[in-house]
Design the sequence.
């Protein structure tokens, strides 16, 4: 069945940070993007290789090897091949449309109610035109906005931001990184917090650090946009740890003061030993 939705959002940073796509050749990327478009339009791809080769317009041995790489990004469901990120985008569009439709119906209902109140007020004005008493219209004025609701939404967003910052700080400590608290780093974390919760985010951080921190090739991918990527997060969550990792502990003020005193003592000792050495050298010259 053809999907009537004409487009889906494309996120270049997620695409370029995905482990599967960055290892593709330009030809494989072309096949992958073509299959993504067809998967969106047809709400899935055929399972048979012959039909997929026909969609890509090729039958060479090179195409066979390219397909083995590209089709790793899709999964089978309901007799078709699907893509997790496209499924997520469809669900997001459906949710947005549903909310927009509900909002439109609510606005229409309020307008009808307001119009009925206004018409009734006009009837009251005509019926009391002989009276010299002024007609008040405070009942037909629109209702003020619910300030408590607005305040609660702001508090919710602030709490979400603080939780994302806590996760980012834990990530930086464990991975020995220094990623800043900016929109690009916090947005994917907030998304995964909403979907999986704080414990799952900590679990994924520990898992990826155990796999990538001491791997020279993979350490560069140890960043928020990769670790908290929507299409990869659940896989990381279910992945086994490679080994125990030492979780850094923040030093207390007392421990920091002790470190300063030790450094000062070592420095003074070095100065005294240096002075003593110069003194012995002078005795030998006499």
Sequence:
């Amino acid at each position: 069945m053809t999907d009537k939705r004409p487009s889906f959002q494309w996120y270049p940073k997620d695409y370029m940070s995905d482990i599967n796509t960055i290892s593709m050749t330009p030809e494989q990327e072309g096949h992958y993007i073509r299959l993504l478009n067809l998967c969106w339009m047809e709400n899935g791809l055929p399972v048979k290789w012959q039909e997929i080769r026909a969609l890509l317009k090729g039958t060479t041995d090179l195409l066979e090897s390219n397909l083995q790489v590209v089709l790793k990004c899709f999964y089978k469901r309901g007799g078709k091949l699907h893509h997790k990120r496209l499924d997520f985008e469809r669900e997001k569009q459906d949710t947005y449309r549903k909310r927009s439709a509900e909002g439109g119906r609510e606005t229409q209902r309020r307008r009808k109610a307001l119009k009925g109140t206004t018409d009734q007020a006009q009837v009251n004005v005509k019926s009391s035109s002989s009276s010299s008493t002024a007609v008040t219209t405070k009942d037909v004025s629109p209702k003020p906005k619910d300030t408590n609701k607005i305040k609660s939404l702001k508090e919710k967003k602030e709490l979400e931001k603080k939780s994302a910052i806590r996760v980012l700080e834990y990530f930086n400590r464990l991975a020995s990184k220094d990623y800043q608290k900016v929109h690009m780093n916090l947005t994917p974390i907030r998304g995964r917090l909403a979907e999986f919760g704080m414990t799952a985010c900590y679990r994924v951080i520990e898992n990826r650090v155990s796999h990538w921190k001491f791997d020279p090739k993979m350490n560069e991918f140890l960043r928020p946009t990769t670790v908290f990527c929507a299409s990869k997060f659940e896989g990381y969550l279910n992945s086994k740890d490679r080994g125990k990792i030492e979780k850094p502990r923040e030093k207390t003020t007392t421990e920091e003061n002790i470190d300063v005193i030790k450094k000062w003592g070592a420095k003074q000792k070095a100065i005294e030993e240096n002075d003593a050495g110069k003194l012995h050298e002078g005795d030998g010259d006499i």
User: Anything to note?
Assistant: Residues 155-237 form one domain. The chain has twelve helices and two strands. The radius of gyration is 32 Å.
